[in-house]
């Protein structure tokens, strides 16, 4: 299992619209094969800092999902909402307690 931590910095002037738009696409993320959980988080110290933490069966499952989003054109829409490039962190779960 891997955990994907997607870190986004939204443009303050479009934050509310972006959050609505982004929250609207997350059910499809959760329903994608290989995804077992998606958490949409806002950093309490900065409202325009958003993190999406998701659990996937494997990195290959996430890569297939990301390619699907790329092919759909959705990833091309992100720059209009973001103040900086997205940061992806991939964490392999070693133990669950």
Automatic annotation (TrEMBL):
Residues of the ABM domain: 2-90
InterPro entries membership: ABM_dom, Dimeric_a/b-barrel
PROSITE patterns membership: ABM
Protein name, UniProt field: ABM domain-containing protein
């Amino acid at each position: 299992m891997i955990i994907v931590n997607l870190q986004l910095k939204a443009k303050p002037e479009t934050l509310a619209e972006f959050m609505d738009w982004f929250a609207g696409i997350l059910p499809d993320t959760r329903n994608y094969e290989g995804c077992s959980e998606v958490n949409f988080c806002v950093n309490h110290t900065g409202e325009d800092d958003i993190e999406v933490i998701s659990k996937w069966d494997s990195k290959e499952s996430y890569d297939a999902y990301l390619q699907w989003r790329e092919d759909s054109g959705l990833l091309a829409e992100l720059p209009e909402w973001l103040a900086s490039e997205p940061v992806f962190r991939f964490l392999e779960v070693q133990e669950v307690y």
